[in-house]
Design goal:
Chain lengths: ~210, ~350
């Protein structure tokens, strides 16, 4: 289950007569003013907060820009006869919140990409350990990857391992990837298991 | 559970340290679209595609970073401060939300209504028949092309200039003040009618094509419907943010709304959009002219004076230059006064 679902206050204090998914479907028809009213009342704080957070990644925090981009998000929702809303797949309860946040963040990223010609700064990972020589490190990477490509390691577990150790994602961040369908504990368990497997293989001299 | 405690000790530390030190986030041809990559988070991709993207992101420093940053931004619920900012945003005002909703739904209705018009429903067939009659499709294509449509709108502006602000590619024309919200079709220049027919076809073929949205907005602006024009042009801008011609029209639309509805904040929006355009294309006369007009309402006389002088450096002859000189003189007269200068009557012949 995704961590992208916000807390209850984003229900806008409305009586939940309709699920968020039903509301999205009504808005996708593009002729129901009342549904769009409810959509904005319900999702607007979440959209604004997402826009604010994403803008700050680029070092900006100006009210005018914020408001413009929030409006752009709604135009994106309604563009092409609400294509974005029509394409939403309600795979699990609450998926709609994460979906709308991603669309909102994408609008902001696209805005800055068009201005700057590139993605945001690609922040570096914390650097607090003495680094090995690159050739040595690449050999180690290859040896470990060879191990992870063999049974009993699944393709999914290999992905998780590298997202954690190479891309520096936390277990919480990896668990937010809904297609992996894992909790934070589940991700941690995969990491621990693969650690053990690698350690055993290297200790037994299969790798060095 | 603390993974570090159970790691393979030195081996894993070397692995992590190397990942930090030798990180090279560089986008390659193999990298997927970043917007699609982020859709991994809410699980909106087909399993096969998701698997392919995850395998790539796990090994690619560029995509891995995109995914990591997206997860960081989107995993945690909004903070108290973000909620507070949300409460102060423009759309926190229910009245503004209602306006936006009306624009969204009205836009849909307009598109549908246009398609329901019999003349437009049958237009593709008529167009094809005409093309056959004249012996080639290329002429028809040109008649309906964006380039010609842009020219038609410019000619319509020059023939019956409805506002002081300029529109892209248009020559100077005598200004005619409109009465009421818009022109009746019997008073519209034929160029505008032709342009509108092209625009209707263009929008029906591609409701989100920023070129046609831009023309649609400009046509509405020429007809005195700046509220609708703002909606269309903002949509075009969101689809093509770096297009200075969209920013010219958008600035003009906000300016017209400010003039008609006495909305000071619309002058600011006009100035903001036009300045954005000037940053992208500093020597574009149309942008400079419109920016100087907007500056008179929100900036000090000194800034407005500098803006008019900047315009006259790139355009020193012709009707627009004469107007610019009149504005400049007026601004200079008022320069001792800190209040904004009143707009002057445009030059008419």
């Amino acid at each position: 289950m995704s961590n992208l679902e916000p807390s209850g206050e984003y229900e806008g204090g409305l009586a939940l007569e309709e699920s968020p998914e039903e509301l999205l479907q009504k808005c996708a028809d593009m002729d129901d003013t009342e549904a769009w009213d409810r959509f904005l009342a319900r999702f607007n704080p979440l959209i604004i907060a997402t826009v604010v957070r994403t803008i700050r990644r680029y070092g900006f925090d100006r009210a005018g820009l914020r408001d413009d981009l929030v409006q752009d998000v709604y135009l994106k929702f309604s563009a092409n006869r609400a294509k974005v809303l029509r394409e939403f797949k309600p795979l699990y309860p609450g998926a709609v919140f994460g979906y709308l946040r991603v669309i909102a963040a994408n609008v902001v990223h696209d805005h800055f990409k068009s201005k700057m010609g590139k993605y945001s700064d690609q922040s570096p990972l914390p650097d607090n350990v003495a680094a090995p020589d690159e050739t040595e490190w690449r050999l180690l990477l290859r040896d470990i990857d060879d191990l992870l490509k063999k049974p009993p390691v699944s393709a999914r577990d290999r992905q998780i391992f590298w997202l954690y150790y190479r891309q520096g994602m936390s277990a919480k961040e990896i668990a937010a990837i809904s297609s992996l369908n894992l909790t934070i504990k589940g991700v941690e368990s995969v990491i621990v298991r693969l650690n053990q497997l690698i350690r055993n293989a290297f200790e037994n001299g299969e790798r060095q | 559970m603390k993974i570090g405690d159970m790691s393979g000790g030195d081996l894993i530390e070397r692995l992590q340290a190397g990942a930090q030190a030798h990180r090279r986030p560089q986008k390659t041809r193999k990298c997927p679209d970043e917007d699609t990559l982020r859709l991994l988070l809410p699980g909106q991709l087909e399993p096969e595609e998701a698997d392919k993207l995850l395998t790539h992101a796990a090994e690619c420093d560029w995509c891995g970073t995109v995914l990591r940053e997206a997860a960081q931004d989107l995993t945690d619920p909004p903070t108290g401060e973000e909620e507070e900012l949300a409460g102060k945003a423009r759309l926190a005002d229910p009245r503004r939300r209602r306006e936006l909703v009306e624009r969204i739904v009205t836009r849909r209705e307009r598109t549908v209504d246009r398609w329901r018009l019999p003349i437009l429903r049958w237009w593709p067939a008529w167009g094809l028949a005409a093309a056959v009659l004249v012996g080639g499709v290329s002429y028809q294509q040109w008649m309906r092309s964006p380039t010609r449509t842009e020219g038609l709108l410019a000619q319509a502006y020059t023939k019956r200039r409805p506002m002081e602000m300029r529109v892209p590619k248009a020559e100077w024309g005598q200004m005619r003040v409109q009465m009421g919200a818009g022109l009746s079709s019997s008073h519209e220049p034929p160029e505008l009618l032709d342009a509108k027919a092209n625009i209707a076809r263009g929008i029906d073929a591609g409701p989100d094509d920023p070129r046609w949205l831009k023309f649609e907005g400009e046509a509405d602006l020429l007809e005195g419907r700046e509220g609708v024009a703002i909606d269309e042009l903002e949509r075009a801008r969101s689809l093509r943010p770096g297009d200075v011609n969209i920013l010219v029209d958008l600035g003009a639309a906000y300016y017209q709304r400010a003039v008609k509805e006495d909305q000071p904040e619309s002058y600011e929006l006009a100035y903001e959009r036009l300045s954005e355009g000037v940053r992208l294309k500093p020597s574009e006369p149309t942008l400079l002219f419109n920016q100087a007009l907007a500056a008179e309402h929100i900036e000090t006389p000194g800034v407005a004076q500098a803006a008019w002088e900047a315009y006259l450096k790139v355009d020193s002859s012709g009707g627009f230059a004469r107007e610019a000189r009149l504005h400049l003189e007026n601004v200079k007269k008022n320069s001792s006064n800190s209040r904004t200068t009143p707009p002057i009557q445009p030059l008419t012949h």
